[in-house]
Inverse folding.
């Protein structure tokens, strides 16, 4: 049975509900940043502390992760984070207006290491093209993974992805990203002596295309 989440930081949104009114929910109209797969929320709490000018939506379809994320947010007293339990694509489709996100962050998405499962990976060219429709000009796209061939794959295809500028140029990825918090999974991988692949792109303004 699903453990109920009663935190004030949790938005109890269901697939058929109308889209949330984000400015009413946050009490302001600051730009929205979306973390897909927030896990236990340690990253989003650090990020929201560093960026009070943004409203963060922390998304995960893992209920216990949402509960842990909410506990962290409630403890920190941060006013600029809300947590939703939902699948990323159906959530964006239903709840995010085109061109309205200032940032999308994806840290350590499920790597699907077996060759025959790779097509299940969340981040690929089609997904980034889809995501692009929800980003405003100048919006940031961050991707991080410890998984070598996932990191290299995203770094490689992003170079040719329409409408984005590489913020790490001339590198297509880096192993250190200043000012970017370390998530639980990143910490675990770093402690195991692995390297993180960071990719950071920015959606181009229409005038620059
Ligand atoms: C390996 S964990 C990483 C958690 C966290 N980002 C971190 O770095 O510590 C991946 C998380 O993404 C969530 N996830 C994977 N695909 C998702 C999707 N399509 N929509 C929402 N959450 C997703 C999983 O439930 C899991 O909590």
């Amino acid at each position: 049975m699903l453990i109920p989440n009663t935190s004030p930081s949790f938005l109890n949104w269901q697939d058929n509900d109308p889209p949330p009114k984000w400015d009413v929910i946050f009490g302001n109209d600051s730009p929205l940043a979306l973390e897909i797969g927030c896990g236990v929320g340690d990253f989003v709490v650090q990020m929201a502390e560093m960026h009070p000018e943004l409203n963060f939506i922390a998304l995960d379809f893992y209920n216990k992760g949402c509960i842990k994320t909410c506990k962290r947010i409630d403890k920190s007293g941060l006013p600029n984070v809300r947590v939703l339990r939902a699948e990323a694509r159906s959530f964006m489709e239903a709840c995010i207006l085109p061109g309205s996100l200032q940032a999308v962050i994806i840290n350590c998405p499920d790597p699907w290491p077996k060759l025959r499962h790779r097509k299940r990976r969340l981040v690929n060219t089609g997904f980034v093209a889809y995501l692009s429709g929800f980003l405003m000009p100048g919006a940031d796209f961050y991707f991080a993974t410890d998984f070598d061939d996932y990191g290299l794959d995203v770094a490689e295809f992003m170079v040719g992805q329409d409408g984005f500028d590489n913020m790490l140029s001339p590198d297509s990825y880096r192993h250190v990203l200043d000012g970017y918090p370390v998530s639980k999974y990143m910490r675990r991988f770093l402690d195991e002596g692995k390297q993180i692949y960071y990719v950071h792109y920015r959606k181009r303004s229409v005038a620059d295309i």
In short: The pocket of S-adenosylmethionine is lined by residues 36-39, 59-62, 65, 87-88, 107-110, 122, 183-186 (CB under 6 Å).
